[in-house]
## 1
Amino acid sequence: MTPDLDPILQAPARLKLMTMLTAVSEAEFVTLREHLAVSDSVLSKHVSALAAEGYVRSRKGVHAGRRTTWISLTPSGRDALKAHVTALRELIADVE
């Protein structure tokens, strides 16, 4: 039986965001917005949805004299992403 896909991670921007966060301890909101090529409001909605599930956390601070927000992947978010990727791989395993 194929594991279920995580509905929270099915949105392409959320999946890409989560994947980007696996490579760093945390990333600035602005950097994520630029790499995803989305607006502040779109990224904010995705981050909020992921945070509500406990997949990411955010912290506010000051960097180079300006206020900024950092986003990081939580352990449960990392586990959810791994499970989702496993489900995707199983789903496409028989595709030629």
## 2
Amino acid sequence: MINANLNSCLSFINSQSAPTVGRPAGVKRAVTISRQAGCGAQSIAEKLASHLQQHSPPGQATWTVFDRDLMHQVLADHNLPGHLEKFLPEDRVSAIEDTLADIFGVRPTTQTLVQQTAETLLKFAELGSVILIGRAGNIVTAKVPHVLHVRLVAPLEDRIERIARDDHKTLAEAREFCVGEELARTRYVKTYYNADINDPLMYHMVINTSLLGCEMTAKLIAEALLRLP
């Protein structure tokens, strides 16, 4: 699985760095998606990539979605072993655990790993034609002018039903997952970026996916991206 994900990342990078002779330069664009658990972010991102690809000029790099596979690329970028992926959760890590790991040289500190993640996010955003899900991508790329920042939200009960259906969980398990993920992502952004993930001013758009559905949400984001100055 790791090799497959790395191949996907490398394929994207190679397509972006391919010679541009005979290709229209085009305008670089990228999207960051911050999401509440169970909003359908992955499905929306895939529909968005497909829609943008259909409306891209000939020769432009393939639109690519980076979510969990982003962490494989972070490890590859910084020559880190694959087992460190488990130390890259979208959550804060215990200060005691971090200190002991640093003292005994078990792994880089979480702050270092977060910094390396940010570097990879920024690299991809600057290349363009990417949809980056999570990891405070909107904050990391805030000064990159061609990036559109989106926040996906939905009522908790709707998100619970989606998780239970898609991930074959009981409603109780889905509720626990949604609440736990939300707390984890909130802690991650607050701990490492001193920001509030729910602050609407950090995004170009905040969309209720329960009201619009995945297909309409993807089209709305695409339209906004194409109109980005």
## 3
Amino acid sequence: MSNSSNRSPLVIFFIFSVMLLIGVVAYSVMNPRNASDNAPAELLGVLRPEPKLLAPIRLIDQDGAAFSTENLKGKWSFVFFGYTYCPDVCPMTLSMLKAVDKHLDDSGNSEDTQVLFVSVDPARDTPEKLAEYIAFFNKDFLAATGEKIEIDKFAQQLGAGYIIDPETAPGVYAVSHTSAIFLIDPQARLVATFSQPHNPETIVQLYFQIRDYFR
């Protein structure tokens, strides 16, 4: 009788410990640690809580060649959505990204970085039009478009909204679109979003910090 009563507290403690461990594991599963928990304070406004692996995409680049998720692998990619007839946001953003590219080139960090402009206006932005347009800013920049369903699939994954406005004349219309720049890592994961205002020096500084953070 005494031996049984002496063991009871140990049994109770063991059961309690097991239940506590199960509770901790369950909490960890239900509340995973965010990737940005230990990030520098200045990155908290741009980093995603967790990197988002992109689903396959099927677009066409400015040379008429297929462009897929594989084209995003192996390099860091700055991605911007817009259209060539854009009167202000697109040319300003691409000019800013040209300045970012120059900063990276001057520091010897441009080899594994690329800029991708995605047109959400495939009716007017043919590959030939995109090739002419993107080369004006930087001949090394990439441009792509495709069927609307494929553009939407890519845009929705990144949270890049856009609306094609009604025509004001045959073939004449504007497109309202996000001004954000999205950063995709060499594993084809969305890791950060840069909202307006865009400053090339600031973006380069944050970009280097993000690269160090995921190293």
